[in-house]
Amino acid sequence: MATAVPVERDAVARAFTGEGHLVIAAGVGPALAAASTATALTTAALSGTPYHLVVSAGIAGGFQPEAPLGSLVVADEITAADLGAETPEGFVPVTELGFGTVTHRPPDALVRDLAAATGARTGTVLTVSTVTGTAERAAALRARHPRALAEAMEGFGVAEAAAAHGVPVLEIRAVSNPVGPRDRAAWRIGDALAALTEAFGKLAPVLESWNQHDQ
Ligand SMILES: O=C(O)c1cccc(C(=O)CC[C@H]2O[C@@H](n3cnc4c(=O)[nH]cnc43)[C@H](O)[C@@H]2O)c1
């Protein structure tokens, strides 16, 4: 499990206490999250106990009204929203420039099972390097990604590391703030961390049984 910061790591670890997994604070942003996750995966593989699933987890901004504060989102697509080029005609993702990738897809069945266990919504979770701070940017992201429910800063980096190791990936986010105009008074980080702990309590049996049977 790769969270960004220690409070997220602790929120997950409080609920997820079995053996055979690791919960790390991998750092904020896609680059550090990728480096930390790849290091953890390599270390485990070299010691003969490779991981079979990687989960990016933490708090996120939720697109309104679909992902209200305190709600949970399980990504069926993890998409890098700002990996590309700005052109006079608008943003062009790197894939349309002829290289790279911008989306990773978690296993369908696992996404369905996790959503059923927690009541989470499923949809695209965007990875951004800059937190959205205006209504215009939020609207532009939704126009480009109509299925987006949330934005955060690590999922795509974690997914790239998992893909490099041939390991499936999930992203699970609890909504701490709306995506849109910057309003620190509207953040509900405590509620989102509590929602994360509650969700991981319900997810633990699903993830553990998937780890044992579906590799
Ligand atoms: O200063 C701000 O306006 C601001 C607004 C929201 C979040 C931040 C952060 O620095 C938190 C980044 C951290 O938390 C995740 N996160 C939470 N909400 C969002 C969001 O709306 N957009 C992107 N990331 C968010 C993120 O994954 C980081 O780990 C600052």
TrEMBL record:
Q: Domain named Nucleoside phosphorylase: which ranges? A: 21-193
The protein's Enzyme Commission number:
3.2.2.26
SUPFAM superfamilies in the cross-refs: Purine and uridine phosphorylases
Q: Which domain of life is it from?
A: Bacteria
Q: Keyword Signal, does the record have it?
A: no
**Catalysed reaction(s)?**
futalosine + H2O = dehypoxanthine futalosine + hypoxanthine
- InterPro entries given in the database record: FL_hydrolase_MqnB, Nucleoside_phosphorylase_d, Nucleoside_phosphorylase_sf
UniProt cross-references to Gene3D superfamilies, sorted A to Z? Nucleoside phosphorylase domain (3.40.50.1580)
Enzymatic class: hydrolase
**CDD domains noted in UniProt:** futalosine_nucleosidase_MqnB
For molecular function, the Gene Ontology terms on record are:
hydrolase activity
Q: In which pathway does it act?
A: Quinol/quinone metabolism; menaquinone biosynthesis
UniProt keywords (A-Z) are: Hydrolase, Menaquinone biosynthesis
Similarity section: Belongs to the PNP/UDP phosphorylase family. Futalosine hydrolase subfamily.
Please give the function described in this protein's UniProt entry: Catalyzes the hydrolysis of futalosine (FL) to dehypoxanthine futalosine (DHFL) and hypoxanthine, a step in the biosynthesis of menaquinone (MK, vitamin K2).
Q: What is this protein called?
A: Futalosine hydrolase
Please report the organism this UniProt entry assigns to the protein: Streptomyces longisporus
Gene of this entry = mqnB
